[in-house]
Amino acid sequence: MKLLVALGILLVLFADPVESILKEIDQWLNQNPREIVVISFTRNYEPWNERTIARDIEDKLRFLWWDQSPSSLSMNDEFATSGRWPTLGDAVRRNQRVFVFVHPKLASHMGTPSWAHNPTIIAPTETTIKYALSNKCRKLVPSLAKSCLTAKELVSVDLYLTRGLPVCTTVRADACNRLVLDAARACYNKRKSLERTVNFLKIDFPGRRGKAGYKALKEAAAYINNQNLETFTRTDVGAL
Question: Quick one: signal sequence residues (predicted)?
Answer without folding.
Answer: 1-20
